[in-house]
Structures are given as C-alpha cells and as structure tokens.
C-alpha cells in the first residue's frame, strides 16, 4: 500500500493563511477523522478541525479525486490560520494517523511525475515558476509548465515517425507495392523539423537569459560617475562612491527588475593606464566581465569619439550630464537626469533579444536539440548524395530520435509500424 | 526417476521440427509426438521461406545447425535476395519452396537424426508431478515421461475455420483440433488471447492462361540459406504476376457482408501486414488494383498459391472474384480460401528460454505464442528445444540477446511486450540491425552453438576454416597502410588529413571496393572470393557499429541489473496501477526488459531500479 504524504505547502512561519496538503490513498480518511466528513470535491467548504473534543482550528477544505489533483492521487488541502502553533498541532495530528507520513522535499512533484500528471519539461517549468522573480521569467516558466515544449515535441515526434515509416516501408516491404523513391518526402519532412529545431536552439540562449538574468556592464574611465549611476539606478548605495579616481577595484553587481526582465548591473573598475598592481588586476577583470556582458553602457567624457570596447547595440552616454552639458544623450547619477531614458533604452534592447526566446529554456534541451539536429543533417546529406543504403539514413534518424528522446519521449518500433500499416496497403 | 525420454516435443510443424532436432543435437533423448509422421514439415500456408527479417532468422537457425535453412535450400525452386540494391544489413534471402520436397527433406532430417524418436499419436494431456509437467498422455491412454515438454501445437488450440457463413472446429484444413489439450492448458490458468489468420484459395495451374501474364524469375545468382549449402538442388521456376481489377473489387464489395471477417463471426485479431483481400478493399478503397503473385507450390503437381488474395468469403463468391482476374478467367479452385481463428498464450507468461514461468517443465514455441510465419516458429522451436535439453541434462540456460541476434529480438519482444496481432519479424524491430546481418549470422552465433554443443562436426570444421581464412585476409589487409598522398597519387579522392589508413579501413570508405584495393596492392588479389565479400560487408558498417557499441553497452548494463523473480510490483509505491499490472504480467528478468514494457516512463524505471537495489541490499544484509 502506498504511503499517504502530507506537508505544509505554503511558506513556513506566521501568515494570514497556511496550506497543509495531504495526498495519497488515506487522504480522505484523514479528512474524515479531522473534519467529521469529506466535503464535496473541488468546492471550498468550511469545517472545524478537531482532535478528540478539542477544536484545532476552523479551516477551509478543498478535496480532489484521484486523477484530478496535482499529484494524481486523492488529495485534501486544509487552509488553516497561519499560526505556528496551529500548523504544528495539525501536522502532529496527521503524523499520528496510520499510513500517513511527512512528505520528503519535492515528493508531491515526484508523484505528479510518476502518475504522469506532468512531464519532465513541465517539472522544470514548475521549478522555474516557483523561482521566478520577474514578469518575463514568470511568463516563460508558465509557458513551459503548461507543456509548450511538450506540444512542440509532439509535433516533431509525429513528423519523425512519418519519416522513419517512409524509409522502413521501402526496407521491410521491398517486395510489395510500395513507393520506389521516398527520399523527396523524407527530405521535406526532415527540413521542416530541422528548421524548427534550429529556431529553438537559437532561442535557448535568450530563454536561458530570461531564466538566469541579463548582465549589463557600466564601463568608463575612472571617476566618470559609473558608481554614482549604479546607485542612481538601484536607488541605494550598493557601490562605494568617492571622488578619488579608481575606487571601484572589484566588480560590483546589483540585481534589478528592468521592465519585467531580470538584469544584473555590473559596476566595473575604471579603465585607465595604471602602475598600481591591484588596480591593474581590477581593470583586467573589468574588461573581461564587460566583454562577457549582454550589454554595455559606456560613460564617456566625449561620446562622439566612440569607445574602444563597444559592440554593436551598446549604449554610449555623455558622462556627468549635470555638469558637462553637450548634445549627446547623457545621464547623471547625481541628479537622476537621463536615468529613466537609460532604463527605457536598456529594456528595449534586451526585450528585442528576448523576442527570440523559444519554449526550450534549459541547456539540457539545447544539447538534445543540437544532437538531434546534427543527426538529421547527416541523414539529409546522405539522401541528397542519393546513397541507396536507406538503412544508414534510417540509422541517422534513429539517432536523432534517440537524442530527442528526453524531449519527445521514446519512439519505439510499434509507433513506426502503426504509421506504416495505416499509410500503405501491405500484404501480398 | 528414470524417464522414457529427456525431452518430448509435441507437434511436427516448423517449431516442432527445429525444437526436436535441437534437443537431439544437444544429446538429449528426444521424442517428437505428431499425429502422423506424414504431417511433419507440412507448409500449411504460403510455400515460401525467408524474406526480410525472416531470412535473417533462417540464417541464425542455420548458424546453430538447425534444419530449416538446409531443407529450404533443397526444396527451393526460386531464390531471390530481397533489397539487393540496398546494403547487406537489410538484404533478406527468400525462396519459393516445393511443398512436397520440403516435407520429404524435413522428414528425412527427422528420421536420420540420432537421439530422436518419432511417436505417432495425439497428445491429449500432460503427466504431472505436483505442479511440474513430466510427460504426456496420448489419446490411446499410453504415457510417455520426460524431464521437459515443448508444446508446438500452432493454431490447434480451439481452432475455428471460417468460410463465408460456415464455421467449423479445425486446425489446419483437414486436421482435428486438440480440445482436450486446450482444456488442460485452461487448468494451468495461463493468460490466453485470440488471433486470426487466413489463406487464399488454391488454384489449378493447368487452368490458368499464363500467356499474357507478367513473369517474375528468380535471381541469376541464387543466395542460399545455409552456410553449408553451395548450390540449388531442385529445378528453378518463375512465378506469375497478375492484378485484381475494378470488377474484382466490385464483386467483393457487393458481398462483403458474407465475409466471415465482416459479418462479425470472427473475434480474433488479424495481422495488419497480411490483410485479406476484403480488408485491402475496405481499408484502401482508393486503390483500384492489387498485385497477386501466382506461386507454384510444387514441381510435381499443378497447385498454384495466389499470394495476395486470402479471404473468408463464401466459396461461390471466391469463384466469381478469382475468375474476374486476368489470366484466371477459366481457373478451377482446388481448395477454397479460409480464415482461421485460434487461441494463443500471452507470451509474457514465458521467460527468455520460452519456458512457462509458472509451470516448470513446460516450454511453448511457435504460433501458440502469438507469432506467425514458419521462420518465427522454427526460431522459437530452436530456443525452446535447446533449453528443454539444457533442463533435462542439467546445463545452464541458453539465452539470446537483442544485441546478438534477431532470435534475441523476437524472444525479448514476446516476453516483455506480448503481442496484439500475430507477431512477424521485421528488420526494423532490430535496433542493432547494422550489425545483425544475414551474412554474419554464423560469426555471431556459431561460436555459441559450438560452446553449448548444438553444432555438429561438419559445420564446426567449415566455420573454423572460414574464420581462419577471414582472419588471415583481414590481418593481411590491416598490415599495410597508405598515406593520403599515396592514395591521391593512385587516383583516389581522399581527405588530405594526414591520416594513414590500412586496407581494411579503406574498404570502409564508400569510394573503395575490393578491386580498387587489389589495384593498390596486387598481393591482395590472392584473397579468396568469399573472404573478400565478407570483409567488404564487415567494413561497410564498421563506423556505425562502433557508434552503436555505446548503445549495446547501455543495453548490457541494463540487462545485468537483474530483478528477483519474486519481486512484488503490486507493493511498489509511486507506480500507477496500470504499470504495476503490466510489470506483473511480464515479470521482466532485468531492468533492460522492464524499460521496454509498453508505457514505461523514465521516472518509473528509476524508481524500479532503486527498489530492486534496495531489495538486493536487503537480501545480502
């Protein structure tokens, strides 16, 4: 008999409401013991929870049948008052019941996976969702949690099965009335799948950025006002600022939400020639981090001269616009002038990159997609060379499917034969 | 206790013949119980052996010194290597067999086989010792005892023949079904299912107008089945080809309700790859014509097997639609086509030896396990016969893997997945098909056969001679290397990657055939034709096989994770009930098999592995 598990599902500590979830075959029995009955499914019902004659709390109870809950099992959720004492008493009471035990971390989700309520990608999506801090992260995680990757993969799976069936029918039914040359159709199918895979592969980088955040480096000569700008952006004193040139020797990071996107601003050491060993190490590191960042904001005394490290799409600004003046867009951390415009410029540039984000978001996905795409390319090349050995072409597609296994699920020979028998009239 | 025999094989069809012969080759005193000696080796359906996937099985049977391949070579009246234009991995030898010669040659093999006794009679019941099978009781009341019994009764379990609206009990046309035995098997509580298959009407060849029909000849250079055969024995013939037409389809459509299949009289599931003509016309209504092969059944009579029009329509309708086909306008039907329904045992109740897991001493092979085809039957007969002998002689089980043979693929499919339609071998079922080739069946399996003792002296000698010639030739080829520069000078376009390649490695490149190598080094001209051919085939897939070795390693690792036979799936936490039931039905031997069970998820497999490890730790602690 499977254990019934329970746990506090909301954050621990004092709160207005806390949720205790019970899942498994004895969940309804636990509810009956505590509340006197099992209220109607999927409707909130108020009950007194009792321990013997004593009332533990008044709770809102939600019940779910097996197959209609998060875990796929019979589930009861108790919404109780968020007192440490009440939760403690309720958990203790549940723990005393036969067949019930405290859930291990992640066990509700594991059961959801095992009962096929969620696939692996959805679980990754759920984990991302719970971790999400910004709107873009939430949207992306939600897309994945709702099975967007699974849906795409389902499409690829169907097409690859079709391609394999076409090849296998010419191999295993060569002595029957089957099409002579299936290569053109197979190539067309593979081209379609490969194009979609490539889009996803490119999108992984952007999606990965949404998940883990963008880096924007603030770069410029010493004492040009980088740290002041960072403080202005962050609205707090994150970096030490002083008027002595070369104060920031390390890289200082501030994480922010820029128009829904997670952004880490890097305050780097001022770039200049120096004899100071410590400072020159700091400068080297600053250059390296600035180069790796997704976007650079240059604070320059004369922006019209350009900047040495600037890449296409970077932002060049007039430093200390409050005192320098000039015609170039400027910014002043001190007065706050230009900061709103800078944030808009940054969010526009990053948003355009995010637009490419696909439904595959993890490196694990990218590796699988790339390997699958490579194998399909091999198969396609062999067909274009008109190699008659279609068993080798089939082997390459098999490898692609094998690589995409974790995304599309296993494609076994029965699925291919189903396609063969439904498309072709076979049998002498 | 001294038994009358070590092994009893019940049934003299294709599974029974190779089972009995295999057990006898192992040195087990074997009895073959058959209704009549004359029925041994009868081909009740299509008079052909081999084909794609099936030809591989015949080669593997032969590599283990089984009988099917060499008998088919003697009886072959038309040999064709299918997929000749594709690579050797998917080429399948096929032969049209003379039904009479096949039967006679098979009977001669059985008669001449040492350790093998033929017993004529109907096996009516098993002799039991507690829960174990210890022999058979014949219909006349006599008893024969043995350590193990192999049951190969084909479609005889509750067989029901349908012709149109007429149904009657029967196995193959003219034989009586074994009702008593079926009742006994019911008592074992084995899970049963029901399948259906069919045959076309048989035609009188003298009444066919062959003059305008397309002719399909055999190959000029016949590819035989047996590694020991060198030439064809029987006179070679061609087959005729004709087609159904709109009139044929109209007759069938109009009478579809009279077909046993379409009037709801048949509950069994038929094979999708071998549909009746009714099925073809209903399911693929857009096709206005279907190919029909006219295959002579024998050199010594005029019976023609019209391959492609199996049916369960009433006799008069068969007569009408057959005569609507070109060349058959005045044909005489010698025997009507019919459909047959029969019980089969859910093969998930078997282990990898094809022994019934819950009935010690009983093995099942052939159509009774839900397969179709002579080759599938014979290959199972071989596995069951070898292992029945191993049980009787107190030796280790002899098992096959997906990575070493089509036999291993088939047995694994049967015992882990079971069947939902009659199971037929296809090359696409073998994930390692680039290395499991018909041409290297002997390299893969004959050493195993020599080790377990089922390979005779003649084959052992021939195999060892072949292998030493091959090894010598390969060594010769590998001993000389060429630089890319040398190759370009000789006129070959190769990558200037500075990599030196030996002769064997060059053979793996697409632009090199053996003649090109002989041009590079005339000494290689001395290598014999057979070795050249084999080395070329081995080299062709070398790079892919290297890549597949990783997959083979994963498979072997999973196969080594053994699951205790008494493992309690129903008590497992975190598995869906459906999956628990499936695992419980198949009771996989190892994690590899468990992973191939339909509906298995990676998460469930991980869980199972963890539990198996846990229970193993529990046992050693």
Estimate what percentage of residues of chain B fall within beta strands.
15-25%
Category by helix and strand content of chain B: alpha+beta
Uncertain parts of chain A:
none
Q: Which CATH architecture of the largest domain in chain A?
A: 3-Layer(aba) Sandwich
Query: Helices and strands of chain A: which structural class?
Result: alpha/beta
Average per-residue pLDDT of chain B, rounded, comes to 91
Give helix % range of chain A: 40-55%
The first-to-last residue Cα distance of chain A is 52 Å
Which stretches of chain B are poorly predicted, pLDDT < 50 over at least 5 residues? none
The radius of gyration computed from the alpha-carbon positions of chain A, rounded to a whole number of angstroms, is: 30 Å
Overall pLDDT of chain A, averaged?
81
Rg value of chain B: 26 Å
Look at the structure and give the CATH class of the domain at 202-341 in chain B. Answer: Mainly Beta
Portion of residues within helices of chain B: 25-40%
Q: What is the name of the CATH class of the largest domain in chain A?
A: Alpha Beta
Anisotropy-based shape of chain A: flat
What is the 3D shape of chain B? globular
- What is the oligomeric state here? heterodimer
Sheet of most strands of chain A: 6 strands, mixed
At the third CATH level, what is the topology name of the domain at 202-341 in chain B? Elongation Factor Tu (Ef-tu), domain 3
Topology of helices and strands:
The complex is a heterodimer of chains A (428) and B (621).
Chain A: E1 4-8, E2 15-23, H1 27-35, E3 45-51, E4 54-64, E5 75-82, H2 84-96, E6 100-102, H3 107-114, H4 120-131, H5 135-145, H6 148-172, H7 183-212, E7 214-220, H8 226-234, E8 252-258, E9 261-267, H9 277-292, E10 295-300, E11 315-318, H10 321-324, H11 339-354, H12 363-384, H13 390-408, H14 413-423
Parallel strand pairs in A: 1-6, 7-9, 7-10, 10-11
Antiparallel strand pairs in A: 1-2, 2-5, 3-4, 4-5, 8-9
Chain B: E1 7-10, H1 14-25, E2 30-34, E3 48-50, H2 54-63, H3 68-75, E4 76-82, E5 92-97, H4 99-112, E6 116-120, E7 123-129, E8 132-138, E9 143-145, E10 148-151, E11 160-163, E12 166-169, H5 179-188, E13 192-199, E14 202-204, E15 214-216, E16 239-243, H6 246-254, H7 277-283, E17 291-296, E18 303-307, H8 315-323, E19 333-335, E20 338-345, E21 362-364, H9 374-392, H10 406-417, H11 441-452, H12 457-478, E22 481-482, H13 484-489, E23 501-502, H14 503-508, H15 514-520, H16 529-540, H17 542-560, H18 577-586, H19 591-595, H20 602-620
Parallel strand pairs in B: 1-2, 1-10, 2-6, 10-21
Antiparallel strand pairs in B: 3-5, 4-5, 7-8, 8-9, 11-12, 11-20, 13-20, 14-18, 14-19, 15-16, 16-17, 17-18, 22-23
């Amino acid at each position: 008999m499977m254990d019934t598990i329970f746990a506090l599902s909301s954050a621990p500590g004092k709160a207005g409401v806390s949720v205790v979830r019970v899942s498994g075959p004895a969940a309804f029995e636990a509810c009956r013991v505590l509340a006197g009955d099992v209220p109607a499914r999927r409707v909130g019902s108020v009950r007194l929870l009792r321990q013997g004659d004593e009332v533990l709390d008044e709770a809102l109870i939600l019940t779910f049948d097996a197959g209609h809950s998060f875990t796929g099992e019979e589930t009861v959720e108790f919404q109780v008052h968020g007192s440490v004492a009440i939760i403690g008493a309720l958990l203790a009471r549940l723990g005393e019941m036969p067949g019930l035990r405290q859930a291990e971390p992640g066990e509700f989700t594991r059961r959801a996976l095992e009962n096929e309520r969620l696939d692996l990608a959805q679980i990754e999506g759920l984990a991302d969702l719970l971790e999400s801090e910004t709107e873009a992260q939430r949207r992306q995680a939600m897309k994945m949690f709702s099975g967007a990757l699974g849906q795409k993969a389902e499409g690829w799976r169907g097409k690859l099965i079709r391609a394999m069936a076409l090849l296998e029918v010419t191999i295993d039914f060569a002595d029957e009335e089957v099409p002579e040359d299936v290569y053109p159709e197979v190539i067309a199918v593979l081209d379609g799948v490969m194009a979609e895979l490539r889009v996803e592969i490119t999108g992984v980088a952007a999606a990965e950025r949404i998940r883990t955040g963008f880096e924007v480096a603030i770069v410029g000569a010493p004492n040009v006002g980088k740290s002041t700008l960072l403080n202005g952006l962050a609205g707090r004193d994150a970096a030490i600022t002083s008027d002595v040139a070369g104060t920031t020797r390390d890289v200082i990071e501030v994480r922010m939400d820029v128009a829904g996107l997670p952004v880490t601003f890097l305050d780097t050491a001022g770039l200049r020639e120096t004899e100071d060993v410590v400072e020159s190490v700091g400068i080297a590191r600053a250059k390296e981090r600035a180069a790796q960042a997704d976007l650079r904001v240059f604070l320059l005394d004369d922006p019209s001269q350009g900047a040495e490290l600037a890449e296409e799409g970077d932002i060049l600004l007039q430093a200390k616009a409050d005192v320098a003046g000039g015609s170039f867009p400027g910014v002043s951390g001190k007065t706050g002038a230009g900061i709103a415009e800078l944030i808009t410029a940054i969010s526009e540039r990053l948003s355009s990159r995010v637009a490419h984000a696909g439904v595959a978001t993890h490196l694990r996905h990218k590796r699988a997609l790339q390997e699958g795409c490579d194998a399909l390319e091999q198969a396609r090349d062999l067909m274009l060379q008109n190699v008659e050995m279609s068993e080798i072409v089939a082997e390459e597609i098999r490898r692609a499917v094998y690589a995409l296994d974790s995304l599309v699920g296993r494609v076994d020979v029965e699925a291919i034969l189903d396609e063969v028998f439904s498309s072709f009239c076979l049998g002498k | 206790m001294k038994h009358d025999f070590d092994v009893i094989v019940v049934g003299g069809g294709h599974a029974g013949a190779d089972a009995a012969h295999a057990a006898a080759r192992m040195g087990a005193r074997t009895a073959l119980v058959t209704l009549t000696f004359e029925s041994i080796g009868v081909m009740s359906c299509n008079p052909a052996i081999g084909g794609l996937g099936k030809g591989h099985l015949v080669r593997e049977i032969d590599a283990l010194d089984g009988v099917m391949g060499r008998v088919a070579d003697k009886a072959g009246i038309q040999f064709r290597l299918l997929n000749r234009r594709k690579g050797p991995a998917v080429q399948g030898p096929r032969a049209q067999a003379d039904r009479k010669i096949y039967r006679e040659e098979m009977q001669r093999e059985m008669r001449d086989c040492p350790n093998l006794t033929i017993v004529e009679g109907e096996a009516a019941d098993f002799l039991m010792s507690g829960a174990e099978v210890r022999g058979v009781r014949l219909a006349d009341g006599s008893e024969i005892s043995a350590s193990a019994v192999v049951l190969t009764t084909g479609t005889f379990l509750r067989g029901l023949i349908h012709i149109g609206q007429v149904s009657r009990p029967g196995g193959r046309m003219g034989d009586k079904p074994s009702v008593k035995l079926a009742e006994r098997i019911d008592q074992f509580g084995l899970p049963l299912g029901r399948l259906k298959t069919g045959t076309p009407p048989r035609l009188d060849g003298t009444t066919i107008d062959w003059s305008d029909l397309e002719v399909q000849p055999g190959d000029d250079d016949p590819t035989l089945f047996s590694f020991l055969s060198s030439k064809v024995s029987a006179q070679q013939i061609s087959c005729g080809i004709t087609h159904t037409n709109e009139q044929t389809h109209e007759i069938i459509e109009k009478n579809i309700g009279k077909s046993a299949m379409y009037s709801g009289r048949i509950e069994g599931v038929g094979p999708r790859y071998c549909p009746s003509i009714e099925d073809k016309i209903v399911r693929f209504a857009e096709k206005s014509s279907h190919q029909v092969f006219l295959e002579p059944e024998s050199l010594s009579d005029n019976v023609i097997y019209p391959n492609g029009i199996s049916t369960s329509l009433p006799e008069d309708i068969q007569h009408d639609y057959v005569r609507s086909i070109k060349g058959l306008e005045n044909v005489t039907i010698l025997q009507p086509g019919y459909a047959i329904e029969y019980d089969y045992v859910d093969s998930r109740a078997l282990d990898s030896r094809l022994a019934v897991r819950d009935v010690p001493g009983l093995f099942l092979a052939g159509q009774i396990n839900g397969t179709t085809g002579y080759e599938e039957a014979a290959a199972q007969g071989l596995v069951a016969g070898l292992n029945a002998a191993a049980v009787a002689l107190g030796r280790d089980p002899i098992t096959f893997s997906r990575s070493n043979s089509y036999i291993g693929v088939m047995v694994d499919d049967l015992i882990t997945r079971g069947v939902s339609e009659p199971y037929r071998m296809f090359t696409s079922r073998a994930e390692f098909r680039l290395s499991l080739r018909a041409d290297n069946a002997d390299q893969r399996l004959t050493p195993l056969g020599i080790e377990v003792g089922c390979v005779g002296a003649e084959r052992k000698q021939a195999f060892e001679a072949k292998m030493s010639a091959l090894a010598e030739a390969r060594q010769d080829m590998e001993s000389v290397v060429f630089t890319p520069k040398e190759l370009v000078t000789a006129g070959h376009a190769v990558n200037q990657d500075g990599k030196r390649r030996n002769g064997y490695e060059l053979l793996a490149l697409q632009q090199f055939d053996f003649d090109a190598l002989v041009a590079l080094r005339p000494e290689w001209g001395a290598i014999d034709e057979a070795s050249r051919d084999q080395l070329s085939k081995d080299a062709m897939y070398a790079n892919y096989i290297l890549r597949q070795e990783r997959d083979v390693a994963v498979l072997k690792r999973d196969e080594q994770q053994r699951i205790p036979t008494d493992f309690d799936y129903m008590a497992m936490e975190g598995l869906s009930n459906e999956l628990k039931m499936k695992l419980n039905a198949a009771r996989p031997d190892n994690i590899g098999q468990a992973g191939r069970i339909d509906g298995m998820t990676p998460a469930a497999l991980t869980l199972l592995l963890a539990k198996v490890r846990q229970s193993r730790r529990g046992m050693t602690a």
